[in-house]
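Sample 3 of the quickstart, ligand alpha-D-mannopyranose:
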Amino acid sequence: MLSYSSYMLTAVAALLVTCNALTKYPGIPGLPSIPGLSGRDDLQGQTHLSGLPKSLNTEVHKVLNLKHRLSRLKGVLVLKGKIREVREKIFASNGEKVDFASALASCEDARGTLATPMNEEENKAILGIVKEYNQYAYLGIKIGEDAGQFKYLNGIPVNYTKWYQNEPNGKRTEKCVEMYNDGSWNDKKCNLRRLTICEF
Ligand code: MAN
Ligand code: CA
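Result:
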């Protein structure tokens, strides 16, 4: 009993550690390695993870292969300007101008939500898309019904803002927020057509 559960613990720990190291792991057997990465740290050339039964070792390598493949696909999307990445977030647009509810619905249909800048870095990434299409965009921020406070779509009050001078000025009549093409924000009615930018 003890040996089986300790096996599983070792296996899970090894899987997590290995997955964690994967961003810099080019050493998938049968695949070309990435120049500039070498040495034991990145597991290059390691074909068997010690302490793992063969079947789990195979599973670990399948996961590593998938992660490696995903990071290459991500490279293609970044290269083609289809996505912008900020840490864990990915921003992308379908290029369509629609009202707030439709924009949110299309982001959610794609398993994302409307782009919601939580800091300057994210605001700049979204601004990049606004500039690329030269269209203002709705953000994932709405006025709360109660105190007229602006909130994220999960109901939490915003803790980063980039209001244009003298905004917000809609006095509860402008319940949505648009991003201008300098990255600043304006409270705005929700029924206009604005660029859809999602985050994933
Ligand atoms: C328009 C609207 C408002 C905005 C003002 C700024 O009236 O876009 O939301 O605050 O312009 O002058
Ligand atoms: Ca306004």
